[in-house]
Design brief:
The chain is an alpha+beta fold. The protein has 4 helices and 10 strands; from the N terminus they run αβββαββαβββββα.
Length: about 140
């Protein structure tokens, strides 16, 4: 498992689907959002030199999955605001498909690949950038 060896991520192969998956753990978390919001979020993170790996899921309404460092506590108000944006916070033990897994809608790919030796961005930084991106003129409030 190259991902486990290179990045230290908890990965495996789902025996039912034969997909390569990442297990959300205490060290690696995942935040899912629509690709449009993801592009804006990644742009803001890049400006702050905090951009990290992002998985692009295929489909008619594609999602992006931001891999982050450990999750921390979050207020109910912030959680509600993120939920209204369609942002989904992955729970411990959830499985995320890794490239080059194939889903019914197509092949999973990297929107922004990981870098060996570089830490995942802080969970809170990705959430803050997502909230900021949601009010940018290009993305608009939803």
């Amino acid at each position: 498992m190259a991902y486990q060896h290179l990045y230290g991520w908890p990965t495996g192969v789902d025996p039912a689907t034969r997909r390569l998956v990442l297990a959300v753990s205490e060290n690696v978390n995942a935040i899912v959002m629509r690709a449009e919001l993801g592009v804006e979020t990644q742009s803001l993170l890049s400006q702050q030199m905090l951009a990290g790996p992002v998985i692009a899921l295929p489909g008619d309404c594609p999602d992006w999955i931001f891999l982050t460092g450990p999750a921390t506590s979050i207020s109910t108000r912030t959680l509600s605001a993120l939920s209204h944006l369609g942002v989904r916070l992955q729970k411990l033990g959830a499985f995320i498909p890794l490239p080059p897994s194939r889903l019914d809608s197509g092949v999973v790919r990297w929107a922004s690949g990981p870098t060996v030796g570089r830490d995942l961005p802080p969970w809170t930084a990705v959430l803050a950038a997502t909230r900021s991106a949601s009010i940018s003129p290009m993305c608009g409030v939803r």
